[in-house]
Design a protein that fits this description.
The protein is of the alpha/beta class and 602 residues long. The chain is built from 15 helices and 28 strands. The protein has 3 domains: 271 residues, Divalent-metal-dependent TIM barrel enzymes (TIM Barrel, Alpha-Beta Barrel), CATH 3.20.20; 137 residues, DNA primase, PRIM domain (Alpha-Beta Complex), CATH 3.90.920; 169 residues, DNA primase, PRIM domain, CATH 3.90.920.
């Protein structure tokens, strides 16, 4: 539950291998490299060291230079500080580090509004260069009145920048609270605040720093040997264990004896707080996967019900095997959707769901259901949309919140199939979709090649497309657009590009509707762009072995990442690193007139 390490560079005369082996021998499985005065290592050394650490199971982080802060307002110095922060993150990428720790900056008489504006402007400058590195920028909590960056400040910044994470310096929090962090409950209050302000995947694991300290009315004065002050590690470990929060703790103490004493206290606190069974309460998941934000359930007659959520959701058969070859249960599926909800819910908001139900799991029979079942709870929001086929509205289910998502998943909905348009403008899709479907005999490399062709054309038309694995064998490319074009027009746009690509490379691409005539090619299915027709959402699980997840990709990953690389078990580190790579799909803003004119359609 708690990984522990120190903040220290390998000393002169000691090889990297020997240094890392020494850490492992001491029971350390984390290490922070303090690049606090500059950049002692070049990228090649970082890459080599990162490989050695990974081989030994040591999680790396880097502390950026002290001068690489975000509140410098001198124009010349600001260029240098932002460049240093960007460079640190690139070195972190080479190291395979999960977090770059940085100080936010100093107050210097400025208002909170002025400081946030400076931070926002600085992060916008470097965002395009660092957000796709897969390294989090961890902003460290302040310990004095002269520094900027309370936990509340960091939460506001993280809402605006998906690559920002909180780094909790427990000594700083202790100092700012006037020495309040002396009990398990005090640490739990901080953990509860974190969970209220940050999605679970962003703080799993939570990166923290620890040392004992002295403080005064204006905050921290100095670090002291462990035991000299009032901050203790055992109640921290007890709080993290009781809360089920995975955590990295980096000792910033100067003395080896303090490093050892902190570790002993952490392990004692963990051992003393091992969770005990209370009544009928139990985890929703099977325990085969460690999920962020685990949900607890309790007996409710012949079923179960969630505890601790905004609404009580009744669940059935959580232990039923749903992916039998992998050992995953229905409870694992429902817990996955509960944990991924902060990322998934914005993509489902305001959209009707067509439910793809597998009541006996991925290997059993399935059926589609559009009408929201009559036994749905009253609080679940329905979306009535007129059906020309039925001559009356169909009341679709929606999933505006985590409780609704849990309820839908409990129906055996392995996949989430939202409409491409929102309910209030259901005739006008929010994106055009290129569905790349490899036919029998086609390879994943062919899919990546065709995706690249689509991207080239989109770029030349001045449009941005965003790829994701389908989660099965294909790939989807979403082109966000303003909801002002009907489905027929959007479908014609996609079909025109598809026919262009098929004509340019008929050996690789087909638009042939007759399956028997397609051959071992990649079929560009433009007919996914039809009102009422749905496609597996981003972050949707797919009903195939391994429980793969439809996952956003960077364009440079296309052709390299395999469809099954991201599953309900393995996706968590990726989203912790990158956040939601599909977030731009929700912003729209693109129009088709210019592209249509260039393509000769209208």
């Amino acid at each position: 539950m708690i990984r522990y390490g120190i903040s220290k560079l390998p000393p002169e005369g000691v090889s990297d291998e020997a240094y890392l082996d020494g850490l492992v021998a001491r029971g350390h499985d984390a290490l922070e490299l303090p690049f606090v005065h500059g950049f002692p290592w070049k990228e090649k050394r970082c890459r080599t060291f990162g490989d050695l650490a990974a081989d030994r199971g040591i999680a790396l982080s880097v502390h950026a230079p002290y001068f690489a802060v975000l509140t410098v307002d001198d124009a010349e110095k600001r260029v240098q500080t932002l460049a240093a922060l960007e460079h640190t993150m690139k070195l972190g990428k080479a190291l395979g580090a999960h977090t770059i720790v940085a100080h936010t900056g100093y107050v210097k008489g400025r208002t909170p509004e002025e400081l946030h504006e400076l931070v926002d402007e600085g992060l916008r400058r470097i965002e395009s260069k660092v957000r796709h590195l897969g390294v989090a920028l961890g902003l460290e909590t302040t310990g004095t009145d002269r520094s900027f960056g309370t936990l509340g400040d960091i939460a506001l910044i993280a809402q605006r920048f998906s690559f920002v994470r909180p780094v909790i310096d427990w000594a700083h929090v202790h100092a700012k609270s006037g020495g309040a962090l002396t009990t398990k409950d005090a640490f739990l209050s901080v953990i509860n605040f974190l969970r209220s302000e940050f999605p679970g995947w962003a703080i799993d694991p939570l990166h923290t720093q620890f040392t004992d300290n002295e403080f005064g009315p204006k905050g921290e004065i100095r670090h002291v040997p462990y035991g000299s002050g009032t901050l203790r590690a055992d109640p921290l470990a007890a709080a993290a264990t009781e809360a089920g929060m995975r955590m990295i703790v980096i000792s910033e103490a100067k003395e080896e004896s303090s490093h050892d004493a902190i570790e002993v206290a952490l392990r004692a606190g963990e051992a003393a707080a091992r969770p005990e069974s209370t009544g009928d309460g139990r985890p929703l998941s099977s325990g085969s996967i460690t999920f962020p934000d685990p949900v607890t359930i309790e007996r409710d007659g012949d079923a179960y019900a969630t505890t601790g959520l905004g609404r009580r959701v009744r669940l059935s058969n959580p232990d039923k095997p749903f992916f039998p070859d992998d050992g995953y249960t229905k409870g694992d599926l429902v817990q996955y959707y509960a944990s991924i909800a902060p990322l998934l819910l914005p993509h489902l908001a305001g959209r009707a769901l067509s439910m793809s139900r597998y009541p006996d799991g991925a290997t059993g029979p399935s059926f589609y259901e559009k009408q929201c079942p009559s036994h749905a709870p009253e609080w679940l929001v329905r979306a009535p949309i007129h059906s020309s086929h039925r001559g009356e509205p169909i009341e679709f289910c929606t999933a505006p919140d985590v409780e609704s998502l849990i309820w839908v998943a409990n129906l055996g909905c392995i996949e989430m199939h939202p409409w491409l348009s929102r309910v209030e403008r259901h005739a006008y899709p929010d994106f055009a979709i290129f569905d790349l479907d490899p036919q029998e005999g086609a390879t994943w490399q062919q899919v990546g090649y065709v995706a690249g062709l689509v991207n080239v054309i989109l770029e030349r038309l001045g449009l941005a497309g965003y790829p994701k694995t389908s989660g099965a064998s294909g790939m989807h490319i979403y082109v966000p657009i303003e909801p002002q074009y009907d489905y027929a027009r959007v479908r014609n746009f996609v079909a025109t590009i598809g026919h262009m690509i098929a004509a340019a490379d008929p050996d690789s691409v087909t638009m042939e509707w007759d399956i028997a005539r397609r051959g071992p090619k990649v079929f560009i299915d433009h007919n996914q762009n039809v009102g009422g027709k749905t496609i597996a959402s981003v972050y949707s699980v797919r009903p195939v072995p391994g429980a793969p997840v439809s996952t956003p990709l960077l364009w440079q990953e296309v052709g390299q990442v395999e469809p099954g690389d991201f599953t309900i078990q393995t996706i968590w580190e990726r989203v912790r690193q990158y956040g939601d790579l599909f977030a731009p799909v929700l912003t729209g803003g693109q129009t088709l007139e210019g592209a249509e004119a260039a393509l000769g359609i209208g």
